[in-house]
Amino acid sequence: MSGSSVDRVRAGLLAANHPDTIRAFPEGTRSAAEAAAAVGCEVAQIAKSIVFRAGARAVLVIASGANRVDMGKVAAAIGQPVKRAEGAWVRDATGFAIGGVSPVGHVAPPILLLDADLMALGTVWAAAGSPQHVFRTSPAELLRMTGAKVADLREEG
């Protein structure tokens, strides 16, 4: 499955006029800390994908790797309640396994939110379809490619 999901991300990047910056890290990029260590950047520069469920739709939060996401803020940003999504549901709804959910290349368009804290960063790295693949981009490019709504989503404290 990873080949086809990585290919979907590559196609999504190219369709959005974004260069193919996908890199493979066999040691894994499943968590923000693993991804930052593999890439050689700060944990905050990992644009992690967190999927919630709003009824039948996936809500994809693209968050700074240094932040925990506040579910109440997510619900307020989209105007409806959300709940945590189980792994099998995430795979069915997005076409990606947990640890590889990309901001682009979904099988069905999710509701997209972008963590406001990412906007202060230059280069960020996002999952590219598998737990071993990431792509280099910028917060402005993520915003352009996804049409996500920027919101304050960080859990305080």
Descriptive account of the structure:
It contains five helices and eight strands, in the order αβαββαβαβββαβ. With 157 residues, the protein is of the alpha/beta class. The protein has one domain (2-151): YbaK/aminoacyl-tRNA synthetase-associated domain (YbaK protein), CATH 3.90.960.10. Strands 1, 2, 3, 4, 5, 6, 7 and 8 form an eight-stranded mixed β-sheet that branches. The N and C termini lie far apart (38 Å).
Number of strands: 8
Overall body shape? globular
State the share of residues found in helices, binned by percent: 25-40%
Task: Output the CATH topology.
Answer: YbaK protein
Oligomeric state of the chains in view? single chain
Q: CATH homologous superfamily?
A: YbaK/aminoacyl-tRNA synthetase-associated domain
Order of helices and strands: HEHEEHEHEEEHE
Poorly predicted parts: none
Mean pLDDT: 95
State the helix count.
Answer: 5
CA radius of gyration is: 14 Å
Beta-sheet strand percentage? 15-25%
Q: End-to-end distance, in Å?
A: 38 Å
Reported CATH architecture: Alpha-Beta Complex
**Derived structural class:** alpha/beta
Count of the domains: 1
Largest β sheet strand count, sense and barrel closure: 8 strands, mixed
Name of the CATH first level: Alpha Beta
